[in-house]
Amino acid sequence: MAVARRTVGTGAGGARAEKSAARREAILAAALDEFSARGFAAARLDDVAARAGVAKGTIYLHFSDKEALFQELIRTVMGPLVATLETTAAVDLPLRVVAEQVVDLFVREILGTRRKDVIRLIITEGPRFPQLAEFHYREVLSRALAAVRGLLRHAIDRGEIAGDALVRFPQLLIAPGIVAIIWSGLFDRFEPLDVRALMRAHLDILFGEGRPP
Amino acid sequence: MAVARRTVGTGAGGARAEKSAARREAILAAALDEFSARGFAAARLDDVAARAGVAKGTIYLHFSDKEALFQELIRTVMGPLVATLETTAAVDLPLRVVAEQVVDLFVREILGTRRKDVIRLIITEGPRFPQLAEFHYREVLSRALAAVRGLLRHAIDRGEIAGDALVRFPQLLIAPGIVAIIWSGLFDRFEPLDVRALMRAHLDILFGEGRPP
Amino acid sequence: MAVARRTVGTGAGGARAEKSAARREAILAAALDEFSARGFAAARLDDVAARAGVAKGTIYLHFSDKEALFQELIRTVMGPLVATLETTAAVDLPLRVVAEQVVDLFVREILGTRRKDVIRLIITEGPRFPQLAEFHYREVLSRALAAVRGLLRHAIDRGEIAGDALVRFPQLLIAPGIVAIIWSGLFDRFEPLDVRALMRAHLDILFGEGRPP
Amino acid sequence: MAVARRTVGTGAGGARAEKSAARREAILAAALDEFSARGFAAARLDDVAARAGVAKGTIYLHFSDKEALFQELIRTVMGPLVATLETTAAVDLPLRVVAEQVVDLFVREILGTRRKDVIRLIITEGPRFPQLAEFHYREVLSRALAAVRGLLRHAIDRGEIAGDALVRFPQLLIAPGIVAIIWSGLFDRFEPLDVRALMRAHLDILFGEGRPP
DNA sequence: GATGAATGAGGGTTCATTCAT
DNA sequence: TATGAATGAACCCTCATTCAT
What we know:
The structure is a homotetramer.
Chain A: H1 15-38, H2 45-52, H3 56-62, H4 66-78, H5 81-90, H6 95-111, H7 115-125, H8 130-157, H9 165-168, H10 171-186, H11 195-206
Helix pairs in contact in A: 1-2, 1-4, 2-3, 4-7, 4-8, 5-6, 5-8, 6-10, 6-11, 10-11
Chain C binds a DNA duplex through helix 1 and helix 3.
């Protein structure tokens, strides 16, 4: 979301476009803050503008309305993610290793960034934004699930795992991650959740550590 | 929807109180519909009243404001649940059997009822209603988790399971259920999810079916 | 536009509806003032509400939006007029007499009332409100012109007038009235126009007074 | 629409001034289109600029604000008209001939040009622009009426007409023209008006064709 | 208790105007 | 001189809340 304010060695031509892009980024960042804190309906564009350091009208130079701002925010943040996942899943390593990489990726690229907030927004506002849910399914979720499925089939072929439960329901692989996102927003002040440990415990269960002989 | 203004010659003295209670229930039911469909901020009390078949002002005879209506709705629906869970968990049966009963309970009492909508509301609106999250944690979640933990400790003592992953993170037991709730609201029209099969696959993984020898 | 505030001898039932109708009238009257003074686009509903002595939201209890308020205003004021004209035109008297009655009607019922302001609004805002122009044509103008045409045909049959100019263009009969409406709004402070004298002079010309032998 | 930023080696020194004047004209023409289509308040300078092929800021290099643009538009278009009328009225010919020339002038120079739109704008927006009405009265209307009055007095002196109706109310001469302007904007799609025939019928009435002997 | 008309604060959106480039 | 991104005041409309009936 950060953008260099100055492009070294650019002729005079790009300065304006650059500043415009920087403002757009600032608006998106502010919008994420406000939408996350209050939800779509209750967030005020006044506050978004103030937080972004622009006038209210400026928002409308970049986004046609509040809803477009919201949807482009989701797309901007989630769009670039899948390529990374597909790359990770394509590597030819033992399942446990790759699964750990996927989990690591999830922890690093989602839980460790603003993307967790975006996922929360998709969960909380998705029912009211069918297009958004559709975009997320088509562009992110279905591809991510396909990548994971491919990974698992590979593992089955090599005899690394026997059951097909995960192949049929790859959601089970990241279900704890989703729960962690929700938990952290709601209950962390009562009982903090060590997400990394949670995910590790999950992998231990999936791969049969500490099970009766 | 129309209601007689005067009850003449009521035999039982409680007829008025009964009618009042019925109205209250109607309002709560209508509120659940509207809050689920639109979210707290976007739901309109006008619509709640219309759906409940009462006048807008009547809502204020039963609830002090929109937020109180919302919170009492959550409490009313979720409150009675825990006792059932605690009873289920107290039974002294093999772990796999009890776990299946817990999952069944979840499917039957939550996914099969309006409670799934209430859970979705807790997830989506909880961040804006700290008291609500706190209530849910104290009255529902912490007790449910404690019950499950007791169950698991028992199983470890009897040598039924070895690892302590589930004891440390009992959330892992119902994580797929949470994901199912979210999935059904967002993505069912693209890819329906067989929740019962999902939960069964999850149990298979937890209890090591179809794993390499 | 005036409405009795109290209906004598009405049971308690009508009091509320009556007050509501009175408010509606007050809003319409205030709207006419504001739309006339500023034009549709520049008129502010805030000012309409203040002038009507109601809150802004009250306007929306009676009219779905600013445009509906505007259109209903026009219809309410112009609607009842035509019947009167048609009655006047149906009388069987010498043409000059009836024409004078028509002119009198115009002066009394339009120039002497708020209807002149409504006509001005139709003229000024009509181009932006096709439905309004259509309503005015269908419900008022075409019927008024037909009535006048009937009158003139009758006169021709009786040999009272020879040329068919007025039959073909009955607009010519009230053209000076329209000009008077426009003039009074724009130029009266520079050169007041005696409308009654203008119309009388117009009739003199039409009916050939003071013309060379 | 694009315009070269620099004129290199301008032969005639006035090239820049010429281009500036051309822009000014383009803005005025575009403004007439937009003001006519939407009215003063609803017309957007963005659209005026786009239609004129200039940037929004450029408008402010030629006109101090929206209102000045509007008023200068009216003055620019209406100003040069009166001289023509005064010339026409000064000719020493039989009244009927001159009157026909006046009507012809009206049809040709007003109804046949954008001036009809400007007159419509004066009618529709005049009440909100007192200075504009004053300008129009002083510079156009009063002089036009004076010219017509002179014409008519002359005719009376020569015994061409007897009554003084037209002298007292020269407005009656062009009243049908005004009505035609209004009619064409509002009702032409329901009932087209043959303006030339209307004016001719009007003259027939004024000059006593087809009247009973 | 029950009603629903009335209220008015609040917020999304538009657009005339400015000014750095 | 010309540009067009940026500004922010203004305004329509919504809806939670109140209260006379």
